[in-house]
Design brief:
DNA-binding, homodimer
Chain lengths: 214, 214
DNA sequence: TATTGTGAAAGGGTTCACAGCG
DNA sequence: CGCTGTGAACCCTTTCACAATA
């Protein structure tokens, strides 16, 4: 039951289930079946049950899953029941967009610091925050207890910045820079790469008839 | 050799190889081995050879792959050797960040239109462009020959906007809105979902010892 | 000799199908 | 009876290992 291993795709699906459950809970639904959850997420009921079974059994046979309870359990499993302090490194347009992104706040992510190396940007106010010199990143991240770093620098600064984040004790990095980062095994890294997503679209447009598997 | 099917992960790796090959070509390297390509991309040489074998055999036994040729072939395979006209729907901060993103232009992606439904934004100049009313999306997209749509609207507008893009003849959509879009089979859809990436990081931080597979 | 291209084996994720239980 | 939880089957991706060849 606890293989201490989960696939990336299963993890993404859990996030989706959580989203649907939040909606169902608001609607006052008491229970939901794996089939209904599957339909919304574009999977199968067996998949839903398998995904949940990684973490225990939450349903009642013949009835389905209790909505509020499953929602709470899933939130706990994903670790989103609390506030997470995040640092954004790179005070450019993308950094600003992420900072302003409301879904962020609503999900408990709190931007606690923004850094840049451009003297024209350092010191500017972003809401309650002030853009800090990337030189003080280590001290500031530690002082503020930041646990998640978001890298939105140009490609050539990304590795250096990531190293600084790791040196400051950060173990989870979301990287938007189009550069493969080399980090210790212990640090969790996820990449969001615009160019790769667009190229996948180009491939599909160029190769009608080909199937891009999942 | 041509199974007319490729996995998402293989496709992503091809994009990475292309990036490395561009660097190698600039450095004047003539040949490269699958092993060297693998090292950069964090894979194995067998994987590189399998990935390439989907599309033919480009190497010379005992020597490796000719860098400029393989680069050109890969660009052709991914479909990035030409200009692609893109429409951004949603003139918010994220839309603006994508519009300004330089890697975009450099890879042949050309933002040909920007749409919004907010009267205060419609008509504003974005560089050479003017933000258009989402009501004229169909006509404008057709007139400009746009082939790729990027959805950066709030969640509740995303489906409607995507439907309009499809109605305008678009077959490839990159969706940043946190909403599962329902589209015809024939349309290629890729999602970029901030919340899911962050939740995966939270999961990892919350479950030390667990392995998130690929 | 060095390295590709590729069948075959291994690994791991998804689907099936049914026993178990409310 | 209805729906969950799960072992087994299936299928796809990755890795292995080696024949082919520049």
């Amino acid at each position: 039951m606890n293989p201490r291993r989960i696939s990336d795709s299963a993890l993404r699906r859990l996030s989706h289930y959580l989203r649907f459950l939040e909606v169902f809970e608001e609607e006052g639904r008491e229970t939901i079946s794996s089939w209904e959850l599957a339909e919304r997420g574009g999977t199968t009921s067996a998949q839903v049950r398998k995904d949940l079974s990684h973490f225990g059994s939450f349903g009642k046979r013949g009835l389905g899953y209790p909505v509020p309870e499953l929602r709470a359990r899933l939130a706990g499993i994903l670790g989103v029941g609390r506030r997470w302090d995040v640092a954004i490194v790179g005070a450019g347009k993308l950094g600003a967009a992420l900072y302003a992104y409301d879904g962020f706040r609503r999900r408990g992510f709190h931007v606690a610091a923004v850094f840049d190396d451009d003297p024209r940007k350092i010191g500017r106010r972003w809401g309650q925050l002030e853009v800090e010199d990337v030189g003080v990143l280590g001290a500031s991240v530690r002082a503020k207890g930041v646990e998640i770093g978001i890298v939105v620098t140009p490609a050539d600064a990304a590795q250096e910045v990531a190293d600084a984040l790791v040196a400051a004790g950060i173990n989870a990095i979301l990287n938007f820079a189009p550069r493969k980062l080399v980090l210790p095994e212990s640090v969790t890294l996820r990449d969001v790469n615009l160019a790769i997503e667009l190229e996948a679209l180009c491939f599909a447009l160029t190769h009608e008839g080909w199937i891009v598997g999942r």
